Amino acid sequence: MQYRHTTLWRSTVKEGLLPLTLLLLILTMSTATSTLAQDINNGRALYITPLVSGQFSCSNGQCHGPSPANNQNGIQIAADDPGRIGLAISQVAQMAFLKTHVTGPQLADLAAYIGNPGAVTGTPSATVAPSSLSFSSTVVGSSATSQQFAINNTGTAALTVSAVSSDNAEFSLVSTCGTIAAGGSCGVSVGFTPTATGARSGTITVSHNAAGGTSLVALSGTGAVAAAPGIQIAPSALEFGSVLVGSFSGSLLVSVNSMGTAPLVITALSDTGTNFPLLGGTCTVGAPITVGTSCTVALRFVPSAVGAQSKTLSISHNANAPAVSVNLTGTGTTGGTPTAKTMVEYLYAPLNYYFITSRDDDKTALDKIADFQRTGLSFPVYATEAAGSKAISRFYFDKIAVNGSRGSHFYTLLDSDKAALITLNPGNLAAPRLPFNEGIDSWAFLPVVSGTGGSCASGQTPVYRLFRGSVRFPDDPNHRFTTSLATYDAFVALGWDGEGVNFCVPQP
Description:
Layout: H1 7-14, H2 20-31, H3 40-48, H4 82-91, H5 104-115, E1 126-129, E2 132-134, E3 138-139, E4 147-153, E5 159-166, E6 171-175, E7 179-180, E8 185-192, E9 198-208, E10 214-224, E11 231-234, E12 237-244, E13 252-258, E14 264-269, E15 278-281, E16 288-289, E17 294-299, E18 307-317, E19 324-333, E20 340-348, E21 353-357, H6 360-366, E22 372-382, E23 390-401, E24 406-412, H7 415-424, E25 435-444, E26 460-468, E27 478-482, H8 485-493, E28 497-506
Parallel strand pairs: 2-10, 3-10, 12-19
Antiparallel strand pairs: 1-4, 4-8, 5-7, 5-9, 6-8, 9-10, 11-13, 13-17, 14-16, 14-18, 15-17, 18-19, 20-21, 20-22, 23-24, 23-25, 26-27, 26-28
Helix pairs in contact: 2-4, 3-5, 4-5
């Protein structure tokens, strides 16, 4: 508060400038000095506290300074005279903001303090620490670890805490704070139990008798969905094809993928019987499967009779979903010569891309495309399973070469290759650069020794595998399969990687 010269009161009344109603108010406040209860301690609190947000307090250095005893800007003219203060509020522009923010009793307390600041017996001062609490992400319906804040009395008189409240029921309170001695403190415990997902917030209000009347603590937290396991399998069916009664097929794999936000646990694998025995794999009942990883279940077909046979593999788990099932089918056949067919090689000249297939519909389609030409190289394979043979699976990598302008095929009968490729694309998604399993192309035999220097059993012909790798041929991968050793050697000389014997086929 900043007061003009002491003649302000006299000149204003004498010249008739003071409205009658204001004059009556001031006279009332002047006479009230002797009737209103005067609280010098409250007067000091009013003096040092900004009564309007964004404005100075009386004790600010630009107003009257830390103590009215210094008579900065003539404040002593209002000593024990609330009417003087009211007059100044109505006439001094810098104090006009107080017109509706002070009461008669407050003016009396201020005037008493200005008149005798040395009579202050002590005042409480309230602070809270910390002034904000942030809770970590908490599952909806569960409770976070509680946190605490302190109410501190840094003043010289007892601090009375009349209430501690939260405006959001998700933030609970435990408080026994009442009267806090000067220099003392009291702790309040705050809990967080979200009722909805997403950002949650609230405010704690501490009501007290210190300057300002309240202290605030900001609250924040996040409600989260409970972590839960999820499951996906691929494929959902295994077709073993035709297998001689008394022999057995090669193994096929089911990939079990942990797709949720908590580890997946396989609790049971159903009995698939003697015709489709479980061979193992990497899945273990009862062992957790880390989120984002997978394991495999291996099976084979051992027909006990001629004709179509089927079974269902049921995989029980801890995810919030029914057990998943894999349909198993195969056909038992009698002895005799298995059906043969021819694996034919094509070259797509525009992109210098080699491709093989034994599928008749592929050959019909490619023979109608001018840019696809037969190279003249081919070799026999089996259309149905022969004793001791294994299925050749065909995988396709879309948009993996020449800046995404073409794909590439890969053939293998090795279980290790198949497992590795299935792991790269457990859902068997038709997506760029992922190995898409196009199923069984044909049947052939494992080599006696695979790789460089490998060999096949008597009566079988080795199929050599070449790879045009990225080191010598950047962004242009391609596998080539041939029974011609001369072709193999020639392409190794051109920089292709010679990977040796990959599988074996019957002699023409």
